Predict the structure.
Amino acid sequence: MEKRMKIIYPVCFVLLIAVIAFLAFYKLDVKYVDPWDEARHGVNAYEMANGGSLFQNTYLRAADYYNLKPPLSMWCIMAGMALFGNGVFGLRFYSALCYVLLAVIAGLFIKKKYGKSESLFAIAFLAINTTSFQAHMVRAGDADSLFVLFFSLAMLCMMQIPEKKYNLYLCGLFFALAFLTKSFHAGVIAAIGGLYLLLTGQIKKLSLRNWLIFLVSIFVPILLWAVPRAMIDGLAFFEKMWETDVLGRTDGTLQNNIAPFTYYLEYYFGASSGKVTPYLCAFVICLIGLFLFSRNFTWQNREKYIGWLLWIVVPFVAFSLVTNKLLWYMYPVLVPILLAAGIMTARILKSREILVWMRAVFAGVVTFILLWFGGSVYDTIQTQGTNAFQELVKEVASLEQYKGMDVFVDYHLEEDGSIASAWAQQDVFVAEAYGDFVCVGDGVMGLMLRSSLLGEQGILFVGEDVYTEYTTFYENRKLIAEKEGYRAYLVEY
């Protein structure tokens, strides 16, 4: 059996990683650009790479104090767009890559610590991380996939501190990188690490030299960004970070996405999501495994169990206590639950103390879970939608003669008769990335104000109800393209 596993394991490992890579990269650039974090990060990255500062993120070429995250994720987006062009695939490439890397690293870690079959099942369970695939992480151009990678690497290093002390320094480094990705969200890593050192007794084994190197591994990477940033606009950005990301999200002053303490519990493990979730299935498998193998627990091997327990419980409790709740805050917790379910699945199937028919039934149930939820991820990818307005902007941007022009927008008429003419940030990204357009506000009014001052041309994008209302004005302009209720006009100022 051991000889066969030497051949079977690498083949199955590669196939499972290929499945995750397929689910991560397949049709990655089809879905419309999301309005919030993805769009903002994309605009920041594009402007930083095209005439901006590497240390100060900007929006519409002005200092951005809305996106208060350090720039590591934006640098990764810049790298993706340098490799694959200024488009949606380049925007999202690094997020998909980070999840594939997470699967590879976690799989190899579990192979080393627990066994080959445990490794394969753990990777398989990462493939059914449905919520993370569908929203705000694996297939999105924001910071969460990179953050979850660094969070997970910090945890894996933490659990190896008893073996080699240099893992403490790696843990500090990954904490610093996580901070440079999502700011004070990384504080949960520090809380877990501190509790782990205390509960396992490792804190007593650390020398002054260990602590000094650990602090260097944390603060040097952060200062390499913080000092140049402070030289640009002083402490303004850091004050906003603290006020918004810490005080605003913990004391309820933001008044956004307020939910009760049980919100995450009900969504991921209850019925509020409208269906049985893969995380509930994984949690039940973990409970079954803990019940069956509880007698194997000893005080001497407590370190490995404490690490997994803290990885799950501390972030879950911490983010449940925060008044502002978003599903992706819980993404770092989903990883250890799925990995633990994979380990327990392999242990149950290999146990000789469980009747053969029981193991056969369990194997059938697990196979159904993996296929069902894996299919759910694939179906979501297949049915993802585009956005007519963004497709129109891309079409106009593909015409070289219009590159770099000023662009205006009148989306639709409001109920009071006014025109919605402020560029939405998701459309700003598409306009800048695909056409190097300069997004100007105020639509028709903006054009009229410029007409007496400039003798240049601009492009006006308008929605159906707007150009129906102002037919005469638009018929006197050159129509460039139209798509599903939107038109693009070339307009003389």
User: Anything to note?
Assistant: The chain has 21 helices and seven strands. The longest helix spans residues 356-382.
